[in-house]
Amino acid sequence: MESQNVKDTVRQIFTEYLNANGHRKTPERYAILDTIYSIDGHFDIDTLYSLMADQENFRVSRATLYNTIILLINARLVIKHQFGNSSQYEKSYNRDTHHHQICTQCGKVTEFQNEELQHAIENTKLSRFNLTHYSLYMYGLCSKCDRANKRKKKNNNHKKEKLKVDVLLGLQWGDEGKGKVVDVLTPRYDVVARFQGGPNAGHTLEFEGQKYVLRSIPSGIFQGDKVNIIGNGVVLDPALFKAEAESLEASGHNLKERLHISKKAHLILPTHRILDAAYEAAKGDAKVGTTGKGIGPTYTDKISRNGVRVGDILHDFDKKYAAAKARHEQILKGLNYEYDITEMEKAWFEGIEYLKQFQLVDSEHEMNNLLAAGKSVLCEGAQGTMLDIDFGSYPFVTSSNTVCAGCLYRSGHCSNRLVRYMGFSKPIVRA
Length: 431
Description:
Dna Ligase, domain 1, alpha/beta, globular, Arc Repressor Mutant, subunit A, seven-stranded parallel beta sheet, Adenylosuccinate Synthetase, Chain A, domain 1, 17% strand, 15 helices
């Protein structure tokens, strides 16, 4: 009876929130709320999705679950926890204050209560801040993992260090089938990282009977237990990224949980794409054959120290964008190139807002922490070796380093790791 009273109360709170904010009161949203308040302890989206799938009348999509979870968090009926790389949720209404111990190795989360600790936190005087609620996470090793580590260290004292990083490269001009090979190899690794290139790449994969074309997103994204990283050497178009990511999310793949994006990756601006077209037009018969995605101008700005990076969207972004746009418009004026970026810019800013929903990280720290924890990494190149800016068939090349050396600094990991390189080429058939 008490449980039913709680459900009735939270339904009323949720209704008031939806009414106040102009959201629809759909049966699916209330069914999700009821299911959450039937769960004891923490849960993730996959668990919630399975529970909802068991209900005949409410088979909801993952997109609906994510959208509803956000509404419930805003209504203060659900709390989101970030335990390492894992996002967990729990109901918040009528829950006693408790703390969490998270094992950094196995990921086990243990709840505990400590009145002395709770009293100390609640009685701490905070300057110009009114405390309403809090969460305390304590990270360390559980006793089981601690014992296992000691045994492992003892057993490995006389063993040779294993390879930790593999790099997969195309040996020609692209289209060697790298994406398919990455998808096959991914189950053997903990991390898949994209280290260079931009949306001019295209890896076609077939997964569970469906075909996908990945342009900026690593090919390991279909494996739910893998960390996927867009590294600092990648250039990212927010509008194209949004379209690509939403297409994958619509098919049931949880990108926001699996995909991490380097703050140091550079953004392709709308004016970069216009500059790409203007430069190519100015070359006439000597044109290189650019994809028109703005890759070259973006890398040019990066090297000239005028670029705008993913991390910039978190601080003083409007000013940085306006300065870059004005600089590009001055160049376009000198080229006497006519253009209109109204629609392109609108889609681009929508992409920026979408990008903010992802985990933006310092990829160099994350990469090396993962390696230090014993994780294995597969680095995925976007273009073939012969398109390398230094060693390719210049000037018919891309604007980044596609060879193995570029992997080290463009993905953010240290060169003191043992690295193995794998190259792929297409067979040459003579008539």
